[in-house]
Each structure stands twice: as structure tokens, then as C-alpha cells.
Amino acid sequence: MIETDILIIGAGPAGLFAIFQAGNINLRCSVIDSLPQPGGQLAEIYPKKPIYDIPGFPEIKAGDLIKNLLKQSEPFKPHFTLGERAETLEKTDDNKWLVTTNKGTVHKSSVIVIAGGLGCFEPKKPNLENLQDYENKGIDYIVKEPEKYKNKDIIIAGGGDSALDWTIELSKIAKSVCLVHRRPVFRASDSSVSTAFEMQDKGVIEIFINSEITKLEGTKCLERVEITSHEPECKILKHTDYFIPLFGLSPKLGPVKNWGLNFTKDLIIVNPEDMSTNIQGIYSIGDISHYPSKLRLILSGFYEATIMAHSAYKYIYPEKKLSVSYSTVKGIKPLN
Ligand SMILES: Cc1cc2nc3c(=O)[nH]c(=O)nc-3n(C[C@H](O)[C@H](O)[C@H](O)COP(=O)(O)OP(=O)(O)OC[C@H]3O[C@@H](n4cnc5c(N)ncnc54)[C@H](O)[C@@H]3O)c2cc1C
Fold first, then answer.
1. 304: CA distance to ligand 1 center in Å?
2. Model pTM?
3. Which of 62, 120, 177, 216 pairs with 267 at a CA distance of 20 to 30 A?
4. What is the pLDDT of residue 123?
5. CATH number of the domain at 2-121+250-330, please?
6. How far is CA 228 from CA 35, 78, 141, 225, 268, in A?
């Protein structure tokens, strides 16, 4: 069991800045995110896009902003549970919370902060008859531990950045990598596409365009896939250890919806004075929280994280006085 003062659900910019603000007043944080990397929408949807409305940064790439937020949170030694979805919520006899993930990791905390943004990013899945039979038995939707694919035969499907980037990356350790895309043209960055085709020319990888996976076969786990090519029309059966469809992710609010919180549509209603929800000890910040005049911007999440940290401190230590002191005056005091 992982014990902490504040458990943050969602490692987007709001959740990451909350680690800093909480750490600054001696509160320790753990973070759960269903994605394999921190950064929320910025890391998953637009890491290479420049953002122009972060105060003090006339222009900063989304991926760089996340790197900076992680660096800023480092002194406060957050614990990250990545690639796992917060699933169930229980109250303990000592007035704390237990949150269990879909993979069974249990977190115990005094306060919970839901910074879930648009919700959990769920993989878009291919439409194949017996898909579920092979999930985690040869089919993966995210690449969490690349080492797992060492010396294995892999088939990746998809035409975006993620499919191209992992094809290039995994080809360094896998026995073979084959990329299958149902359209003639890839949507990924020009440099990744040309690297992939150069690798194909050198015989390092195989690329099938105008093609899709149409059948999965195997006894206990996935052993073969059928690749159907539409131009020219043909089918081949190919041995594989892993099939990784990378068709993108779509957000779904998920289990948090059943935790007894007050919602308006899919947004958690909070009191903007302290970012508290209708349940004592549970706060919400960032895109997923709602109050009159809310602006769904990174900037708002930063401010809300600050308000939340101070409210959470008063909730955890009602007897202690917390005064605001400038960082320039007190500096950074790392947590042990
Ligand atoms: C293309 C694009 C461009 C944008 N440009 C700008 C801009 O220029 N300026 C600006 O201010 N804003 C911009 N935004 C909006 C900005 O990205 C969001 O306001 C910001 O990401 C919200 O941050 P967040 O931390 O609240 O949530 P998110 O970034 O959405 O992160 C939430 C995280 O919570 C995780 N999560 C949710 N539920 C669970 C659960 N049950 N268990 C585990 N994990 C969970 C998700 O996986 C996700 O990683 C843009 C958005 C997009 C899509």
C-alpha cells in the first residue's frame, strides 16, 4: 500500500503543479494516471505544439512545459503510479481514503484531488471478432515497458505519430517489426515517415499500407494475424508475438462518475473558494472541475492547484496555522 497526504488522480498540468504547491507546504503527494507518461493532454495530444498563454513564457512547447513541471515537483519526491486507472474509493475507520487502481495498486491518503481533465484516455480498439481473447495475451494498446518486446516479433497498426515513433523505437530491440496502416498516407510527422521508409528500404522493418489486420489466431495467446491488403487485393497470415494497435485514445470519465460526487454533465461541481467537492476530503482541480466563470485553461489549473493545496492543509491539520510565505523568502525545502 502506498501512503501519502494527498493522492492526485491525473498527471496533467493541474495535477503536476499541485505536487509543487502541496510540497511547498510540506504535504507529500502520490499521483495516479491511466497513461504511461505524465502530462495529460499536453503529453498525449499536442507535445510538440507551442503554447503562447503561459505567464512568463512567450512561447513554450507543451512537452517542455511538462518537463519543467516535473522538474519543479522533483524536490517533493512524488510517487507516480502510471498506466493504471483509479477505480474504487473507500473510506477507512481512521478517516482516510483508499483508492484502488484497475491493476490492484492501493493508495491510502488523507485527501484526494481529482485532476482528471477530460477523463481517462481509453484506447480506440480495432473491430475484430475475438479481440478480447488476446488482450494482455499478445495484444497491447499502449507501450508501457518497451523491454518486454526485446527479441520478439511485433506488428504495429496505425498511421499517426505514436505508431510511427514506436515502430522506429521498438525496431532497435525487437526481432522484427511490421507496421500496418489502412490508408496510403501516414498522418505522422514527415521526419518519422521518411525514417520509417528508409528503414524499410534497408530491410530493418516491413510496412504494409492500404492494409489492415482482419483475423487473430492462437491457442493460449496470440500467435498469428491475418493481414489483408486492399491494393493489390491479398491476404497473408503472419506469425507475431505481439500486436499493438495504436489508433489513438479517446477520453472517458470512467469510474470516478460513481464515487458519489456532484456533477454537471461530466464536470465535478466544486466550491471555487477552496476547490472542495460535496464530499469532505475530496477536491477537484483543472479541466474536470466546474464553478461559475470557470475557464478551461492550463492557467486556471495552476491557480486552482494553489487554492486546493492550502485548503487541503487546513483540512489535514485543522489545529495548525498556515501563513502564505513567498518562495523568494523561504526558498525550496525538499521533502525527505
Ligand atoms: C490541441 C489542444 C491545444 C490546447 N492548447 C491550449 C493552450 O494553448 N492554452 C491553454 O491554456 N490550454 C490549452 N489546451 C487545454 C489544456 O490542454 C487543458 O486545459 C489542460 O490539459 C487541462 O489540464 P488538466 O491537468 O486539468 O487535465 P489533463 O491534461 O486532461 O490531464 C488529466 C489526466 O487525468 C488522467 N485521468 C483521468 N481520469 C483518471 C482516472 N480515473 N485514473 C487515472 N488517471 C485518470 C488522464 O489520463 C489525463 O492524463 C489545449 C487543449 C488541446 C486538446
1. 14
2. 0.79
3. 62
4. 86
5. 3.50.50.60
6. 31, 46, 21, 10, 45
